[in-house]
## 1
Amino acid sequence: MARENYGGLTVSKIHRETPPGFFRRHGPKGRIVFEPDEITKTIHHLVLKSNRLENVRFPDQFDCIRPHLSNRFFLKLDLRNAFDSVKEFDAEVMLDLHFGLDAKYFFHQHGGLIQGAPASPILFNLYCKEILDKPLVRYCRKSRITYTRYFDDLLFSSQGYTGWLKARSRGIRDIIKKSGLRINEKKTILVDNKYIPIKYLGVRMHNGKSQPTEEFLQKLSRAQVGSEEYHGLLGWNRRVLALNIPDG
């Protein structure tokens, strides 16, 4: 789903009725922001805590990049309207949860996780882990393909050749289709990374090396030296460059 951070909130291009317990904000380029009120934040916290989910952690973007750097051929897929694909009933069955009357604080009236809700990222990742990651990991291991997912951004890579990876992408697509999720074909990329760089999660990868994108470097150059933003960007830049240091 097309989104970006705006004041720490999740921005969605999908225009919906404002869910109860949320404020409707207008972000850049006409996007809509759903900001939870304090009661909704408390409800989300209690539901996560009662189900022992408040401390669940998932791989960060660097964990999702590192395994691919030694590979040559890349297939990048983006899930279309990913949060919208997670329905209340499916989430309850798949994750063994029961939302009851509180469901309206987690799901839109016509289905789909609420973008901007505190628990949505955790619920989405847990849901995808069961319905998508497990079958994809099994398939990719058999096919000698490296697979990682960061929310709705999927990356596959191999040492084979472009045609070999493309042929096996049919099996990948079948698994995604069976899960009920959809691919945003406009963002699909298949490249030989020895010759063509690829951008993934804000990092430019090319021939086994990673570096910040030009857009990020421009943002860093505009930040006020010594500011909190500057130090945050500088730390992120160091982590990107550290990906090039061999383990051990």
## 2
Amino acid sequence: MRPSRVTVDEGETAVLRCEISGEEPMQIKWLKLGGILPRTAVVKRNYLEIKKTTIRERGRYICTATNKYGQASAIGSLFVNKVKSVLPEVTIRPTRKVISVMEGKTLHLMCEIAGKDEVTRVQWTRQSKQGVLSHDFELELVKIKIGDTGIYECSVTTEKGESKASVSIVVQRNDILPKVEVRPSHVTTRPGDSVTIECNVSSTLPVTVTWSRADGSPLNKDYLIRDAVLLIRNVKRGDEGSYICVAENDFGASKATVELGVSER
């Protein structure tokens, strides 16, 4: 048998070859000494191929050739090195350790696995809560509530074992967003005049206020913004339109719109 000794790493394919000479017809048979051929073994006449080898496949194999004159045998050994299993990495997207979301919103979490290992099970759970939330890669939390705050875990099982990843979800109350109001919501002025529009903002957290035009036009040098106040000097017909005040803190933004009319009267 050639080679008489074959060594492979666990998971690799092993090939044993039996050198045969003699008069045909000839019958060739493969056996494993002290056992049976693995179910992953494929016999190709004088070749024995064993796919996805494991430690169980190591041992001595015998090849027997028979023709009308008799039979002859050869023995070869298969050694399988055990390879330390490396579990695939699991990632949850969005890839943040802590995700803040406002109550009432819908949150989508996606569980991803690196590599091409065959997945046998996916499971979403929440720490300190019994039961499985989902067996899909995606977890959808609809109209999320304050009580949904917690640590969510995705576990993925492959032939190599189980891998896990977790994310902390913090649900914030709606009233943490800034409140914005512009009154009156419609202002009328004359060409050449100056007009002041104030955006009233209330927030329990530091807030940033910005002004913009609804049509996307830039604010030119005649526009002056101080804190939450928009001052338009030397008003022209082209200044007529909608203006948006946006107040933003770390948890989101709110906005209000005011209409500016320019009239000769």
## 3
Amino acid sequence: MGTSTRASAVLVLLGAGLAGGVATSPSAYAAPVPCTQTFPAVSTSGSTIAPYGRAVFRVQVNGGWSEQARVTDVDVHLGLDVQAADTSLVLTLQHSQGPTSTLMSRPASPGGYDITLDDEAGPWPLGATGGRYQPEQPLARLDGLRAGSLWVLEANNYGGGPVATSNMLVTVTSDRCDTDGDGVEDTSDNCPSAANADQVDWDGDGTGNVCDPTPGTAPVVSPPPVTGVPTTPGCSASCAYPRTVDLDHRSKKKRLAGTVSSVAVGCRREVPVTIWRQRTGTDRKVLVVTTGRTGHYVVRAPRRPGRYYATVGSAAEPLCGTDRSRTVRVKHR
């Protein structure tokens, strides 16, 4: 096959890859998406390269990565069985976005080859048929390209005998992955080895609670202030803002005074406070006073001596808690 014909075939394959790209949003991860994944190189014309022939292998890289995922490392495994002397092999790996890396271009002696090509390995010595070695051109030429795509591995046999292929693999590492499958990508995950979609980190040390041997204690979060007395229908005491009421007898001024306190503004400002007198049997309601803007209230002390206390809270304020003050004694004037 001529050079122009081979180029056309490769372009057709690459065009198909661009049309069928993978598009998976990180938020749509339903299972772990490993950073490093291995994909088979599938021949379009059988597993044997004919004498003076050529074979094209499609590598569909679709590891569930997002469209934004980029290549950070590539390794290639070659399983070859050279069956004739005076054979020379040229293998290249091309990405659908264009760049090509030459994996090998060298004479090949008869026999089996089990080679992994890795930029971080040592040089590939002549005659070596097994091991981990550097490719002829760095695979780093493919770094930064879109990870999810169609790649093409092309093998040319310049020899008088066939070359059988097996276990042809491409291993790709991506910068966008979700190892634990919790929907948070590893680069942002405060615990990439264990699922924790909520990313809770009580002590704020950057390590999520599920990975932290000393996670600390849950912070106390105050409820947000409210601007009026809440009246949410159907709300029970379990969702009420806590509040307290106190009561003092200012005997010289002949006044009863106190304060309603709450983190919720609407549960202390302009709310009713009931003054009671203790009696044998049923206590008697004496009066109802309304607090001011700060929650403070003052009322003339009752003429009748006895023990008095204040209460706050009613069914009309379902989001505000109830409380009873201490008892104070009012003596004869």
